[in-house]
Amino acid sequence: MVLNFLKPTYCVQSVYDLSVDELKKNGIKAVLTDLDNTLLAWNNPEGTPELHEWLKETKASGIDVIVVSNNTWDRVKKAVGGLDVDYVAWSLKPLPRGILKVLHDRDLNKDDVLMVGDQMLTDVWASHLAGVPSVLVKRLIESDMWQTWLNRFIENQAKKMIYKKDGPVFYDSFEKAVQAKED
């Protein structure tokens, strides 16, 4: 199908559903994640207690969390300042530039990482172009930054086409998403 490049490898409710045990079981060494509405709600720059706990557990287990964002360096630096995570800004998603930079700089294989994001047109497409598994999450809040409205409109049309052919996407735990993919 023409839209296969927009189909995520996995779908989970949120980045917090990526448990350390399941990540390790699947050989994941780094979680690459979008910033706005994936890791942080764009209007909540401090993040939630749940986010801070997930980051603490993930990092303590030896799994890196790296933000791959289309935002400016200043914006991303400010947003992740209190999170103690590395980042790549101006990644130009859907181009794979940011993802490939992380793979190269950290000497990671494509199967060692997951790219997590809330948008098919940027995050999922970029992961396909980079050859890494993608995880589509529900956006943290329904409202988006003003720049995102066109992407959301196009994405909704693409989802309708994908769902018509393949059925709806179910957001689940990572363990169940991996199992469903294997079945």
Task: Describe the protein.
Helices cover 40% and strands 13% of the residues. With 183 residues, the chain is an alpha/beta fold. The chain has one domain: 3-Layer(aba) Sandwich (Rossmann fold). A six-stranded parallel beta sheet has the order 1-6-5-2-3-4, with helices on both faces. The model has no long low-confidence stretch (mean pLDDT 85).
Number of domains: 1
Enumerate the spans where pLDDT stays under 50 for 5 or more consecutive residues.
none
Which range does the strand content fall in? Answer: 5-15%
Strand order of the largest sheet: 1-6-5-2-3-4
- Cα shape: globular
Largest sheet: 6 strands, parallel
Query: What helical percentage do the residues reach?
Result: 25-40%
Second-tier CATH architecture? 3-Layer(aba) Sandwich
CATH topology: Rossmann fold
Gyration radius (Cα, Å) is 15 Å
Distance between the termini: 21 Å
CATH homologous superfamily descriptor: HAD superfamily/HAD-like
Spell out the helices and strands N to C: EHEHEHEHEHEHH
What is the structural class?
alpha/beta
pLDDT average, as an integer? Answer: 85
Number of helices, where a helix is a run of at least 4 consecutive DSSP H or I residues: 7
Strand count: 6
Instruction: Return the CATH class.
Output: Alpha Beta
Give a short overview.
The chain is α/β, with parallel strands linked by helices.
Question: What are the salient characteristics of this protein?
Answer:
183 residues, alpha/beta, Rossmann fold, six-stranded parallel beta sheet, 6 strands, HAD-SF_hydro_IIIA, YqeG family HAD IIIA-type phosphatase, PGPP1/Gep4
